[in-house]
Design brief:
Phosphoribosyl-aminoimidazole Synthetase, Chain A, domain 2, 4-stranded mixed beta sheet, 10 helices, 36% helix, 23% strand
């Protein structure tokens, strides 16, 4: 990188990201590194996710939404671990056609979510790319020593819970790609917004920390992610498909198009929390979720064996062509 390029990068960082880095440990983005100290008696939880134009979002999506998506998919993972966010680093790979208006909108999206989720910026990097926009966030959280909730830990008899509703984002993507489902304008708007802007269940992190035996977020589809949790924990799951929570819009799609259940259950991008809770803690978990104003639904039970089995109201096992979204 030439000196003129370096100067341009410094100006870009100072103009758009310097004002966001207000934590003392960020050093005003004036150094090559930053520092962060976890609260006493806590350990760090580390998470990174990248999103790429044309893969995770459309290239003409508002930059404000792209910034929020990049931050929120990582916040979702922290919430599922029972962790509180401490801060993040962001790296941008920018094509030559990205202009000041895009960068301002992107920075505005970060600014709003930094305030909403109390997750400060500590630094990052900017580079040019001949390809689409890429945003990579590395996030740091904290949990009390030894208490991070892992995927492993589910035991036979535990109850399986999910937050919010399942399938909205994948159905919203279907609409964006031209699906002709007959929906009201409000229903279409709901599905589109769930795809554009994930809603991390950060408010439930404390309840997950104290009551969940195993937990992860649903990013690659409920079927596939529950299968992953079962595999790591060495158990099976018996799921009542009729109890999987759907939004009004999602239910309208599935009632009109039976094949859409595959999309809703396996499509990904829900960013809801999937967790297991021992029977002895179920009532306390529900009370804590209600206090956090996060809807939770019990959808099944952990059993001995392997794999996640979804059954319809008649007890017939459902099969899915694609268990989970995969890049490879």
């Amino acid at each position: 990188m030439s000196s003129s390029d370096t100067s341009a990068e410094d100006k870009l960082i100072a103009r758009y990201f310097g004002p966001l880095a207000t934590d003392p440990g960020a050093l005003g983005l004036s150094d090559d590194a930053a520092f962060i100290k976890p609260p006493p008696g806590c350990e760090l939880v580390l998470k990174t996710d990248a999103i790429v134009g044309g893969v995770h979002f459309f290239n003409d999506d508002p930059a404000h939404n792209v910034a929020c998506m990049a931050l929120r998919v990582n916040l979702s993972d922290l919430a599922a671990k029972g962790a509180k966010p401490l801060g993040f680093l962001v790296s941008l790979a920018l094509p030559a056609d990205i202009d000041d208006a895009w960068l301002k909108s992107f920075a505005d999206g970060l600014r709003e979510d930094i305030a909403t989720y109390k997750c400060p910026l500590f630094g990052g990097d900017t580079v040019r790319t001949p390809g689409p926009v890429m945003v990579s966030v590395a996030m740091f959280g904290s949990v009390p020593d030894g208490m991070m909730v892992r995927r492993v830990g589910a035991k036979p008899g535990d109850k399986v819970f999910v937050t919010g509703t399942i399938g909205d984002a994948a159905l919203g993507l279907g609409l964006r790609n031209g699906a002709a489902w007959q929906l009201t304008e409000a229903q279409r708007d709901h599905l589109a917004s769930r795809y554009l802007l994930p809603r991390p269940r950060s408010a439930l992190a404390e309840a997950v920390l104290h009551y969940a035996s195993a937990s992860m977020d649903v990013s690659d589809g409920l079927v596939g992610d529950l299968t992953k949790l079962c595999r790591v924990s060495g158990v099976a799951a018996a799921i009542d498909a009729a109890r999987v929570p759907l939004s009004d819009a999602g239910r309208a799609v599935l009632e009109a198009d039976r094949s859409a259940r595959e999309i809703a259950f396996t499509g990904g991008d829900d960013y809801e929390i999937l967790c297991t809770v021992t029977q002895a803690k179920v009532d306390r978990f529900r009370v804590a979720a209600m206090a956090a104003k996060v809807a939770v639904t019990e959808i099944g039970t952990i059993a001995e064996g392997e794999g996640a089995q979804f059954r319809d109201p008649q007890g017939r096992q459902l099969t899915f062509k694609h268990g989970a979204f995969s890049h490879f």
